[in-house]
Amino acid sequence: MSRIHVTTTVNGDAVDYLCEADDTLLDVLRDQLDLTGSKEGCASGDCGACTVELDGRLVCSCLVLGAEAEGRTVETIEGMANGDVLHPLQKNFIEKAALQCGVCTPGILVAAKNLLDHTPDPSEEEVRYWLAGNLCRCTGYDKIIRAVLDTAAEMRGAA
Amino acid sequence: MKFETPHSVDDAVAILRADPEARVLAGGTDLLVRLRAGHISPSAVVDIKRIPGMRDISQEDGGWRIGAGVSCAEMGEHAGLKAAYPGVVEGAELIGSTQVQGRCTMAGNLCNAGPAGDSVPAMVAAQATARVAGPNGTRDVAVFDIPTAPGQTSLAEGEFITSIFLPAPPAHSSDAYLRFIPRTEMDIAVVGCAVNLTLDAAGTVTSASMSLGAVGPKVKQVDASALVGTICDDAAVEALAAAATAAATPIDDKRGTIAFRKDVSGVLAKRAARIAYIRAKGASS
After folding, report:
1. Chain B: residues touching A (Cβ < 8 Å)
2. CB-based contacts of A95: which residues, under 8 Å, 6+ apart?
3. Which residues span the domain enclosing A9?
4. Which among A49, A79, A109 is the end of a domain?
5. What's the CATH architecture for B2-114+129-166?
6. Could you report the predicted ipTM of this complex, rounded to two decimals?
7. pLDDT tens digits for A63-101?
8. Which helix H or strand E contains A28, and what residues bound it?
9. Yes or no: is domain B173-282 CATH 3.40.50.2300?
């Protein structure tokens, strides 16, 4: 079976790859493009550790086929910092200890950034619902939620 | 496994007809889970999202046609659809997480034929139809008649759903969907209930439909005539609740007992009816 040639955009760069029909986008990102920030937790869309943006919309990359990315736009955690300058969410997650083991963190950061892009002033409830599909087994969530809310305030210039 | 991206309905039908082991890919939030778990091993996956119209929400005869590739998140962002059918949209928006919402579709939820599919009861209460394309052309089928049993549908070989149609809502009508889960999100309905009401100008209910999910092998249509001729008063909603409890035929499982689910069916019927009534009274169209 011949492999599928896919041309797409990842973090602003034109990328092409060959994949099998049953390779997920997560498989391609990690194993072919060496973008290993996105993690495989559950492989069933429950944990959110593989969260990326596809055409600006949050998806679990474990539930997207690599071949589906043809002609589309993918944003991953690797595209979040501006060179050596961390995104305010990344900076605050470190400063406010919103991560421990770190496996869930890339997915949570991508999901939280997507929220703040659309909703600069979310309520705590909105943040908790928005991130309900991102499981963290270390932190108990409280520091994550506070870091997101504090970052939102900071980015609005209200902090 | 092959990956197919037909660019027309006819091409998709031809692929599906030629290969009975091929599976349709819309949002993929059920298909890919089963694929990765090894529960299915299709010969081909047919991505229908590149077919024109599959990702469109459009008005038709005063109603709404929702392409089979439209994600539930896109439905929630559509002001017109949300105003016309708030209950259908709130059901669709209860499926999975933000990430799953970005991909999952109502047509997929329907074809997955899980008894607890959250988008299905409100579609049934709205008398929605599914447009089915297949080797013999196109047919419109009541959404209620698509699932037949857990995981089973009435779709024949080579057929797939291209869109869901919600008919033009009458004046002074609205709907609501509620589900019970032990958590606040990311869970499968223990009971789901949709109510769709039409009122006259004075606020008296002129027609009512109700549908229950997760309390039988497939979605149930339940007689909601107890509300007709009333202003959705306490006695009327109590009678509706009794009808819901009587109609529910749940199983005992880890998520709820038979007695609990029958009782909750009645509670949700009351609450959904009251929400739908308030919405219908406030609805301008």
Report:
1. 1-3, 5, 25, 28-29, 32-33, 35-37, 44-45, 47, 49, 71, 73, 96-100, 102-103, 184-186
2. none
3. 4-79
4. A79
5. 2-Layer Sandwich (3.30)
6. 0.95
7. 999 999 999 999 999 999 999 999 999 999 999 999 999
8. none
9. no
